[in-house]
Amino acid sequence: MLLRKAREAATGYLFVLPAVGLFGLFVFYPLVKTAYLGFYAQPVFPGLPSHYVGFSQYTSVLSSSQFLGDLWRTVLFILFTMPLGIALGLGMAVLAHKRLKGIRIFRLIFSSTIATSVAVASVIFFTLLDPQVGLLTYVLGQRGGAGLLNSPTWALPAVAITTIWQNLGFTFILMSAALQSVPDELVEAAAVDGSSPTASFWRVTFPLLSPQMFFVGVIGIIAGFQAFGQIYILTGGAGGPDNATTTVLFDIYTNAFVNNNMGIAAVMAIALFLILLVLTAVQFLVLQRRVFYAGAGR
Amino acid sequence: MPAPGADPLGAAGAGEAGAPAADTTPPRPVSASRTGLRAVARYLLLAVVSFVVLFPIYMTVVTSLLTPPQIARRPPLLYPPNPQWGNFVTGFNAGHLGEYLRNSAIVSICITVAVVTTSVLAAYAFAFIRFPLKRVLFALCLASLMVPAEVTIIPNYRTVAAFGWLNTFPALIVPFMASGVGIFLFRQAFRGLPTELRDAATLDGLGHFKFLIRVVLPLSRPVLGAFGVFAFLGAWNQYLWPLIVTRTDSVRTVQIGLNQLVGSSFTDIGVRAAGTVLAALPIFIVLLIFQRSLVRGLTTGAVKG
């Protein structure tokens, strides 16, 4: 009996081992190591060993104008992408919700950008925004000008537009699923009570969607902090012009793999971790609460 | 904007609309012509939005079929007068796209198979096997979700370098062979299976491994498929990590390779556009095939909780 229990437990550990081992090696160890690297400053001259400086590197990097600028640009990027992305996704979902002939084709088109990767979307928009031959450049009347991507003011919005377009299919699918979860009877009841379709959307459907919209919003914020490929491709790997598109993650990449300053990059990575940790925790809490409400309602 | 669900009412109203005294006081019996007009307006709106969504893709296809002088023409050409199919041949050969696509396929398929395997095993243990520290280990797996890959790139780069894996496939594959999401989703699905199944299997003398292969996996095909597609796409679309750990075309994935087409060596924008189309095509096809699985995967993970 005891032997059987031991064998059972051994099987359990054997099954769990690959996943847990990988998490240990590629998730938890590097997380601790990153925090540790933040205590060591890069030498002034290359070749010398890095030396222990304690928390001073954390305080100096996190209060530096460079990092605060990165943070501000990341927040701006999120403000450009998230609200507009959700609004467009929701609008498209509402538009495609009605049972009409051929609506499946429209749904397929609306979700089509899900098939584009960050790289594909970025190269598409890189061409559309080309200063000489780009169609968007032409439409915006900047013919012969330097182009949006070379303007410190417009580079970040241009990256944001690319991001919104690439994520449109994803947001549309999420908002459509959310819309389907709203019970038809409620909306019908509102209609019977004499509420116009527009009014019943804003008074009945929209409030019921708010938990999902919040959830998608948090996903959008997290995605904003994780945005990298589009910035890299659209700015030729520079995060420019003049740092205009250098977000926190992009600066981590630049410090670690271009400037070879692992200490500074590690401090920023820990800051990014803490920010994302709070956001993920919020997401989990809201999810739990919603599941609870849904369960209580039935 | 007519709200969802208002439809049946509107349709019923349309049937009675022949009556001359049809008043417009609520609840509204809508006249047939008004419903018709609404439908036309809705189709028009759907068409406009479709146009906006597809326009960047359409322009890329058009550009891929133009010559450099045609691309430079102002106002821009919105259709290819004499399609330059040769751009695709040039893009494929000079752009090394065959190699990049092959690399992406190898990496994504390996990651998908591995991550589904490790997740199934772990999830099975968490759902069906009794062993000490089970809760702690499960919590650890969930905690991995709290650490995004972007945060750990610096030590992971060093680890991979120490293993001598830089610029090889293992560097692109091994760090992504386990997933907290996969373990969580599979455990949920496995726990949803009737407990009598396990009892019956025990009576039949089935061990854990056989029970997993013969009973649990066949019954969990939808969730396996949904997560599989999700994992494949995630692997295919990776950018930051492959950028850091690859140096040569022999291991570069298509996402990173595509950027080579943007570099100064390619002044022919038509060839670049053709390369973009070729790079995007496989996923368009995969998604057309696996559309249902993907939508299910995205929505179970996110919206439905």
Describe it for me?
The complex is a heterodimer of chains A (298) and B (305). Chain A has a single domain, classed as MetI-like (MetI-like fold). Chain A is built from twelve helices and two strands. Chain A has helices spanning 2-37, 56-62, 65-95, 103-110, 118-128, 135-139, 155-180, 184-192, 197-226, 229-234, 248-258, 262-297; strands at residues 40-41, 51-52. The longest helix of chain A has 36 residues, at 2-37. Chain B folds into two domains: 30-84; 96-301, Orthogonal Bundle (MetI-like fold). Chain B is built from 15 helices and no strands. The two termini of chain B are 28 Å apart. At the A-B interface, helix 1, helix 3, helix 4, helix 5 and helix 7 of A face helix 1, helix 2, helix 5, helix 6 and helix 7 of B.
List the keywords:
heterodimer, A: 298 residues, mainly alpha, MetI-like fold, two-stranded antiparallel sheet, 12 helices, 1% strand, B: 305 residues, 15 helices, 69% helix, globular, disordered N terminus
Which helices and strands occur, and which strands form pairs?
The complex is a heterodimer of chains A (298) and B (305).
Chain A: H1 2-37, E1 40-41, E2 51-52, H2 56-62, H3 65-95, H4 103-110, H5 118-128, H6 135-139, H7 155-180, H8 184-192, H9 197-226, H10 229-234, H11 248-258, H12 262-297
Antiparallel strand pairs in A: 1-2
Chain B: H1 7-15, H2 32-64, H3 68-72, H4 86-94, H5 97-128, H6 134-143, H7 153-162, H8 169-173, H9 180-191, H10 195-203, H11 208-219, H12 221-237, H13 240-245, H14 254-262, H15 269-301
Helix pairs in contact in B: 2-15, 4-15, 5-9, 5-12, 5-14, 12-15, 14-15
